[in-house]
Amino acid sequence: MGPQFVSGVIVKIISTEPLPGRKQIKDALAVLAEVAYVDMLEGDTECHVRFKTPEDAQIVMKSYKEIQIKNNWKFEVLTGDNEQRYWQKILVDRQAKLNQPREKKRGTEKLIAKAERMRLEKTQQTSKHIRFTEDN
């Protein structure tokens, strides 16, 4: 089904410098409230965070000063037209992801690919240099 429209759960984060990774943002906000999804591209200065409930978004907005000072972020809850457009974007992105063709491997092809990956990992491990230090 995908995410269902709930008003007041999307918080936009704006930063003066590139934001850290998706996981770091989620971890920073998960301390305060339950984060459903962080939508961003690597190196962006703004992102959207979807929370489980509107109450979670409000908790983050209330404790926003602490996070803002620590990370130099600006928070804004999406409402009205901006919120509608963002929910439309969520549905379009989800549809695009689901319609992507994916490579199907079966039987021996799958086994050969798996064996090749294992062989590659093993050769990478054995090609590492072992360094011994002298203890005097």
Note the topology:
Layout: E1 10-15, H1 22-30, E2 35-39, E3 46-51, H2 54-62, H3 64-71, E4 73-77, H4 80-98, H5 107-126
Antiparallel strand pairs: 1-3, 1-4, 2-3
Question: Can you walk through the features of this model?
Answer:
- It is a single chain.
- With 136 residues, the protein is an alpha+beta fold.
- The protein has a domain at 10-99: RRM (RNA recognition motif) domain (Alpha-Beta Plaits).
- It is 48% helix and 16% strand.
- It has helices at 22-30, 54-62, 64-71, 80-98, 107-126, and strands at 10-15, 35-39, 46-51, 73-77.
- The chain has a 4-stranded antiparallel beta sheet.
- The N and C termini lie far apart (66 Å).
- 13% of the residues are buried.
Keywords:
single chain; 136 residues; alpha+beta; Alpha-Beta Plaits; four-stranded antiparallel sheet; 4 strands; 48% helix; flat; RNA-binding; Nucleotide-bd_a/b_plait_sf; RBD_domain_sf; RNA binding; LARP7 protein
